[in-house]
Amino acid sequence: MSSELPKVSVAETLANRIAALKPGVLPEATTRKCEDLLIDVVGLCITARNEDYVKAALNGSDDDGPCTVIGHARALTASGAAFVNGTAAHGEDFDDTFEGGPVHAGAVIVPAVLAACERHHIDGPHALTGIAVGTEVLCRLSLVVPKAVHKAGFHPTAIFGAMGAAAGVGAALGLNARQIVDALGIAGSMAGGIIEYLAEGAWTKRMHAGWAAQSGIRAALLAKQGFVGPRTVFEGVHGLFHGFAHTTKGDYDALIGDLGTRWVTDTLAFKPYPCGTMAQPYIDCARRLASRGIKPEDVESILCEVAEGTVHRLWEPLADKQRPRNGYAAKFAVPYLLSAGFVHGGVGLGVFTEDAIRDERVLALAAKVKFVIDPDNPYPNNYTGHIKATLKDGSVVEERQPYLRGGAQEPLTRQDVADKFALNVQHGGWSKAQGEAALKWLAGLYKSKIDLSALRS
């Protein structure tokens, strides 16, 4: 079998590109996106800090140490802090999305790199480089065999997140190319995350980002000490893609081809609503229907054209998506989400409470929502929405949303990101003054030693 192995593996090419990057040389657009990621992730950690799943993650950690758990007084080891912060950042499904994946990079990479840098006294420029590298690797991995990991029953953010976190932490800590190869190889055996949470709205998806974040730290530290991982972790006959996508064939050039000269990180999308990404254009369509003066009671039926690749997560079983079992399941139920957006004029964190998901006006409208697969839907390269509403007077009204708001075609401004941060920290129980002080402090974090103690409370 050794004769079949490549002379230079995908991981080796990737590691050489990463090792060649030096702090302080990122393009301005990439730097700004990483600044936005920092603001967004910290705000998300604060907004979720009092939720039961975050309390369980923190209370279930017995590894106290020097690293900040954002929004909490207690500190943990680097791995522990990365786990809890990643779980919190991803927990409300309000974190960033990479169109084309879909994967959520910020909730994995930012907690991993910040925790590692806080523990090992690394400066801001190295942390910035690590966050950019980790985000880039995670996003590009999702392009190698699009949709295949989801189809196989795994959560791509969890699988590729461990690899991205290993690369990002490795870059921040200054690992050489050989060590980065080992870190990637080690992380391949730490990757995991099944999507069975969809069945009843269990909490496990929330921890996928945190688990990937802490795995990346552990892999990088092991590699730094000489622990050897397989260099063919990606393309090998028993490698990552074989295990999680059931193939070793893929577009590896999408991962390594122009890495370091073109940054897909620049196109990251920030969500306007705290729920599944592909549902968001349908919420926009529903809001526009309502803005025409149409009442829920006027609607006879709603038919949505959807991408086949989203059906198993967001549309089926249809009865469960029309009447979700709990607030978390509602985040992945398009009939409920678009109906909530129609009735309430938007979808905020408040529509996922146990009382809110029993709102009879919303549920009555959701029961009228059906779907049909559009074979020409551009998913995952673009997230679109199309609603055709038949009214009780026999008229038909349609709305289309051609792209994800907050994404590459209509990105959020820095002020939008800051406004979202303010709302999130307020939801998490911080005062306006606390939020404003934290936002000002975050503006200088990439220029100093990474010490997050100001975010403890």
UniProtKB/TrEMBL annotation:
Domain MmgE/PrpD C-terminal: 273-428
Matching Pfam families: MmgE_PrpD_C, MmgE_PrpD_N
Coiled coil: none
GO MF annotation, one: lyase activity
Residue intervals of the MmgE/PrpD N-terminal domain: 12-247
Top-rank taxon, per record: Bacteria
Family from the record: Belongs to the PrpD family.
PANTHER family tied to this protein: 2-METHYLCITRATE DEHYDRATASE, 2-METHYLCITRATE DEHYDRATASE-RELATED
Protein name: 2-methylcitrate dehydratase PrpD
